[in-house]
Design a protein that fits this description.
The chain is globular. The strands form three sheets. It has a four-stranded mixed sheet, with no helix packed on it. A four-stranded antiparallel sheet has the order 6-7-3-8, sandwiched between helices. It has a two-stranded antiparallel sheet with strand order 9-10. The longest helix is centred in the C-terminal third of the chain and has 20 residues. It is an alpha+beta fold.
Length: 500
């Protein structure tokens, strides 16, 4: 909605209506929507997916409440109208009845989309489109009635933006293809995919299963919404689906589902995650033929183009897929490793999170590290055990950087000396560490710092990359023997910290 649309909704909304009491959207996960009503919603969607009456399902009061709940959970920045999630939530009871009426009578119009640019990990920028909060609300409502229709039709080798699937399932399937002997990869990356989706073809694909023209017209208006650039310029949208809205991932899968089934028709083994696809063949010559034929299909049929710089026929060790790469181990089995780009990124991020001039307490720094490490390992838990051995070096490096923070925060040698004495370090070793003529980084590896901040102290306070990996991959381990068992598996490297 445009900025003024919020105002007229507030002004025209009837007061004291007989609608149901507003649900507690901030309630804990054990509350109304997370358990009983989510099940009710699933039954609701299953029973009302009549392809000719989808607008009634999308605009139902219950569906709109659940949609708002999910938008609130996702938070997100305001759109062009400047209205925050909190503002819309505060007026949600008045908004819902008017929004429902507008959807059913066809007078609802999406607002403009705010374009923001974010840096890509490999360089360059990626454009995101941020719809207004109310438009995200409507997109989520439409998504919830379309997803049960299209999800069962998607190919099993599609893993992006789907329930129960993700990077872990994609990597597991890729590993199976390699183990079956298809060890040459046609690595395909689509150039500016989200900016080049053809609207006419997308709507035609939707119309094959969606018979409610009102929903198709609504999606068409969403696709045609103007984009407001950072400098305030408004640009008309003739093609593409903006990244940033709840509906965009489903629409992208609907577009590329045609590619999936074409690859299946040709008998090819592949794994696709959004606009990144890996096709597994038996030889380099076969890979070149497949690359050429798939490129022709994409350009002539889907009107999409391959990114020539990122796409090629490669060996598994050279492929950077979702942050992973594949290597053979000593037993000639395929192991999953971090890609070189991922290693560089995580090392850089850990360094940024442990700056020498950290201005808060050491435990505050460790708290931020723990949050990041847990999330990072949860994503990369698919790595093989032989790959995780290299993570011990990163663990040791993080501990040394934390010890360096302690030295910097104590500022003067006598303060560091007293601090080490208070932590049980002998006078001789504390003095040699505190009054060393070398720099902070050198002193962080001295025996005094290792004795003052031992491995067992870090085990108690800091999440280890390797320990967290074993926690994910050894699910049978339970308390109270969990930590000793994990410490046994993720043993430290004595050459890195001899005095610990």
């Amino acid at each position: 909605m445009k900025h003024e649309q919020l105002n007229w909704v507030f002004a025209e909304a009837p007061q004291g209506s007989g609608d149901k009491e507003m649900p507690d959207l901030w309630a804990p996960p054990s509350s109304r929507l997370h358990k009983a009503e989510v099940k009710e919603f699933e039954r609701f969607v299953t029973g009302t997916t009549d392809a000719s009456q989808l607008m009634e399902a999308a605009a139902s009061e219950f569906n709109l409440w659940v949609s708002l709940y999910k938008v609130v959970q996702n938070k997100g920045a305001p759109g062009v109208d400047g209205q925050s999630v909190e503002t819309v939530l505060a007026h949600s009871k008045e908004l819902l009845s008017r929004l429902r009426r507008r959807l059913l009578d066809g007078s609802y119009r999406p607002g403009d989309i705010r374009r923001v640019w974010i840096p890509k990990p490999g360089g360059g920028e990626r454009g995101l489109g941020i719809p207004n909060v109310i438009d995200r609300w409507v997109q989520q409502a439409v998504l919830q009635v379309l997803e049960p229709i299209f999800e069962p039709t998607f190919h099993d080798s599609s893993h992006g933006f789907r329930r129960g699937r993700g990077a872990q399932t994609a990597i597991a399937q890729a590993r199976k293809h390699l183990e079956s002997g298809h060890t040459t990869i046609v690595d395909i990356d689509l150039a500016k995919f989200f900016d080049r989706v053809n609207h006419q073809r997308l709507l035609a694909r939707l119309a094959q299963r969606v018979k409610d023209k009102r929903v198709l017209q609504l999606i068409g208006r969403m696709l045609k919404a103007r984009v407001v650039l950072p400098d305030g310029t408004c640009v008309a949208t003739e093609e593409g689906t903006p990244q940033g809205g709840p509906l965009s991932p489903l629409l992208s899968n609907i577009v590329l589902d045609e590619l999936d089934w074409e690859l299946n028709r040709r008998g090819l083994r592949f794994v696709r995650y959004a606009d990144d696809a890996n096709i597994f063949v038996g030889s380099r010559s076969a890979g070149k033929r497949v690359m050429a034929s798939v490129q022709r299909f994409l350009e002539k049929r889907l009107r999409l183009y391959i990114n020539a710089e990122k796409s090629a026929v490669r060996r598994p060790q050279e492929v950077h897929f979702l942050g992973f790469r594949f290597c053979r181990n000593k037993e000639e089995a395929w192991a999953v490793h971090l890609s070189h780009k991922t290693v560089e990124r995580v090392e850089t991020r850990l360094k940024e999170m442990t700056p020498r001039n950290w201005g808060q307490s050491l435990l505050a720094c460790i708290k931020e590290l723990n949050r990041y490490i847990k999330g990072w390992v949860a994503y990369y838990r698919q790595c093989s055990e032989e790959a995780v051995r290299n993570w011990k070096q990163m663990d040791a490096h993080v501990r040394r950087r934390l010890r360096a923070i302690v030295i910097r925060q104590k500022k003067r040698p006598r303060y560091l000396y007293r601090h080490l004495l208070s932590r049980g370090v002998s006078e001789r070793k504390a003095a040699r560490t505190a009054w060393s003529s070398r720099g902070i980084w050198h002193r962080s590896a001295r025996s005094g710092m290792h004795l003052g901040y031992r491995i067992d102290w870090f085990t108690e306070h800091l999440v280890s990359l390797t320990t967290e990996w074993y926690r994910h991959n050894l699910p049978k381990l339970t308390q109270p023997v969990l930590e000793p068992q994990l410490a046994l598996f993720a043993s430290e490297m004595p050459s890195k910290e001899p005095d610990a």
